[in-house]
Amino acid sequence: MSEKIKTANPELLAPAGDEERLQAALEYGADAVYLGGTSFGMRASPGNFNDEQLKNAVQLCHKNGVKVYLTCNTLPRNDELIRLPEFLEYAQECEVDGLIIADLGVLNLAKKYAPKVDIHISTQAGIVNYETANAFYNMGAKRIVTAREISMENIAQIRAKTPKELEIECFVHGAMCVSFSGRCLLSNYLTGRDSNRGDCSQPCRWKYHIVEEKRPGEYFEISDDKDGTYIMNAQDMCMIEHIPELVSAGVTSFKLEGRAKSAYYTAVVTNAYRAAIDGYKQNPTPSYIPEKWIVDEIRKISYRDYCTGFYFGHPRDNASIYYEGIYKREWDIIANVIKSDGEKITIEQRNKLFDGDELEVLSPKTEPYKITVKDLRDSDGEPIPYAQHPMATVTFSCKQKIPAGSILRRQK
Predict the structure, then answer these.
(1) H or E stretch including 145?
(2) pLDDT tens digits, 337-367
């Protein structure tokens, strides 16, 4: 095997499900974002971006030195192909930096109708070896997104046996699918919602029992857990403590899952990985581990228990199946900071807030710190003991100057 190509400055790629989440990704340190238009993307639930919003999003990102990758990774049916050339031409007109593609036919059309836009091959293509990576490179791909089901060693082998010009993107954080590279018919079968067209109902997260044919209505547990079992429900992936291994394997871009997650999720996870990557760049050693506060951040969002996926071996060895369907949520977002002058802070409320509360402040590229709510007042300047209306504007005294866009949160 040839010597591994080391990536000195890996890209941090954050999800942007809508304009609010895009703003969070920009403020909290993303080098690039991936987002969807109103069609041909693998996430139907977030707001996504209409034509005007897409053009504005690209302009905003480029103004901030951030790249934009547009999802075009559904598997379109014959009757949809007629609309695809217009979609691709508009993507090029908007000057998106890359198109994320899973289908060979779409790849051919992209080369014809958006020749100036880089082609990224989606994880949906299931790339697990260097021959496939090289084949896509020879077809015109600038980047591959590896399947989530391969090991760090295999990624390193792909890197060693592909042209250095071919970029390698890997998921490093977020929800994992029970099916290979997300190709799943379970949702279609049970609910009629097509997972490969961005509308997965996630039946893999449901709780299941066994019913014997001659005992209708009588449920039997699949495991010893009295609450049933979640036989297909994978843990979330987290690689924040393994930056050196990812860099050594030659990963070009660290991808955060979560276009359907909240703006708060986008902010927290982007901020944590930004700090971890920057910390590694200052101390690029194989033994680098992020500071404790950085690792703690990834448990201040809604999450399932974490594992390292397939990176270090088959996940059955590190309990990747999770036995509760719900997310853990140990912190609540209380408000977003509108402005702060070192005397008074103005916030937009999200959850109930009391005079005297101790809150934690999350600001970009800064270790979180505590403040106490004092002299809480409503929008008319009248003193109030608590604020209980979401989206209301309230103020309180604060001697620290906190950047606009910062997040105030409280542990449950």
Answers:
(1) strand 143-145
(2) 999 999 999 999 999 999 999 999 999 989 9
Say what the pTM is: 0.88
What's the burial of 249, exposed, middle or buried (CB within 10 Å: 0-12/13-18/19+)? Answer: buried
Last residue of a domain, one of 168, 197, 220: 220
Residues 313, 393, single domain; the answer is: no
**What average pLDDT is seen over the chain?**
88
- In-domain check, residue 226: no
- Enclosing domain of residue 192: 184-220
Q: Do 102 and 168 sit in the same domain of this protein?
A: yes
Looking at 289, 318, 347, the residue that finishes a domain is 318
Instruction: Tell whether 125 and 215 lie within a shared domain.
Output: no
- Evaluate whether residue 324 is within a structural domain: no
Pair (280, 215) in one structural domain: no
Quick: pLDDT tens for 194-228: 666 667 777 777 776 677 777 777 766 665 455 55
Residue 238 lies in a domain: yes
Only one residue has tokens 């690039």, namely 32
* Angle, vertex CA 348, rays to CA 345 and CA 350, nearest 5: 125
Quote the CA–CA distance of 331 and 227 in Å, as a whole number. 25
pLDDT at position 202 is 74
347 or 231, which is more confident? Answer: 347
Closest CA to 184 of 197, 195, 176: 195
Instruction: Give the pLDDT confidence score for residue 187 in this predicted structure.
Output: 67
Residue 2 has pLDDT above 50, yes or no: no
- Return contacts of 74-80, CB within 8 angstroms, 24+ apart: 74/40, 74/41, 74/42, 74/102, 74/103, 74/196, 74/197, 74/198, 75/102, 75/103, 75/124, 75/196, 75/197, 76/40, 76/103, 76/105, 76/106, 80/39, 80/40
pLDDT of 373-387, one tens digit each? 999 999 999 999 999
Beta bridge partner(s), residue 210: 220
Total structural domains within the chain: 3
Residue 317 has pLDDT above 70, yes or no: no
Claim to verify: residue 45 and residue 157 sit in the same structural domain:
yes
Same domain, residue pair 102 and 249: yes
| Residue of 302, 409, 297, 301 whose CA lies nearest to 347 | 409
CA quadruple 368, 373, 374, 377: dihedral positive or negative? positive
Place of tokens 């506060």: 293
